[in-house]
Amino acid sequence: MDYATMNDDLRLGEQTSLVDKAETDLLDFFQDKQYKTGDVIPKEVELATQLGVSRTVVREALQRLRMRGMVDTKKKRGTVITNPDLLSLLEKTMYPGILDDETLRDIFELRMVLEIGMGDLLFERITQRDIDELYAIVANEPTNTEETLFNAEQEILFHGKLYEITGNRTLKRFQQMLLPAFEYVQKSGLLKKQVQHKKFVSHRGLVDVLQHGTAETFRNAMRNHFENHFQRLF
Questions:
Q1: Residue 150, by phi and psi: left (phi above 0), alpha (psi -120 to 50) or beta?
Q2: Is pLDDT of 125 > 50?
Q3: What number is the average pLDDT over the span 117-134?
Q4: Which alpha helices (H) appear in 126-225, and where do they start and end?
Q5: Nearest-CA neighbor of 154 among 167, 145, 164, 163?
C-alpha cells in the first residue's frame, strides 16, 4: 500500500467515525428537544453548528437516519421526524439459510419465550368465538401429535391464531418472521439431542386451558407444550 492510499484510508476512517458520532448526537439532540413524529427538524447548516461538525458530516448522518426510516424529507416542509418501521430491516434480513448456528438457536429460543409469555394478553383479549375457531383448527390435527415434533401447516394455523388474538401487531409480525427460522432449525440437524419422553400438552390441550384455565396455567401449559423442543436444546 502506497503512502497516498494509506492517507486516503485514514481520512475515510476519520470521516466514518465523525459520521457515526454525528448520527448518535443527532438522535440525542432530537430526544433532548422532545421531537415527535411529524416535527420539522432544523436545517443541515443549523445542525452542523449545533453538533460542531461540517455540513457534509451532518448530511451523511441524516442519510443514515433516512435509510433507517427515522427521518424523511417532505416537500415544502423540510426534513421531519418519522415513525420508523422497527421490524422492516429485520424482515429484509431474516433468511435462515445464511444465519450462523448461534443466531438460529437464539431465534428458536426467542419464539418459545414469546409464546410462553403471551398468556396475560390472551386472557385479556380472547373471546368465545376465538376459542371456537381454535377448537376448529385442532379438530384437523392427527391424534398422535406427540409423534410429530413440527408440522409447519398446523403451526401456522394454530400459533398464528394465538398471535392474532393478542391484538399486538408487532408480535404478529414477529411470528411471521420467526416461524420460517423455527422450521429451518427443525430440519437443519442443529438440534441433535434426542427427546427422552414425548409427553407434552398438545394444541388441543392448550385450547382447553384457554377455555377453562388462567394466564398462569396457560404459561405452564405452553412451557410443557414446548417440552420436546427444550429437551433438544439443553
A1: beta
A2: yes
A3: 97
A4: 128-138, 152-166, 169-188, 203-212, 215-225
A5: 145
The Cα 150–Cα 125 span in angstroms is: 27
β-bridge mates for residue 81, sequence order = 71
Q: Is the pLDDT of residue 16 over 80?
A: no
Look at residues 152, 142, 228, 160 and name the one whose alpha carbon lies nearest to residue 184: 152
Residue 183 has pLDDT above 90, yes or no: no
**Cα angle: 210, vertex 143, 139; to 5 degrees:** 50
Query: Rg of the Cα trace of the chain?
Result: 25
What pLDDT does 138 receive?
92
E strand spans, 33-179: 71-74, 78-81
Give 9's pLDDT tier (boundaries 50, 70, 90).
Answer: very low
48 neighbors 58 (Cβ within 8 angstroms):
yes
Query: What global pTM score does this model have?
Result: 0.73
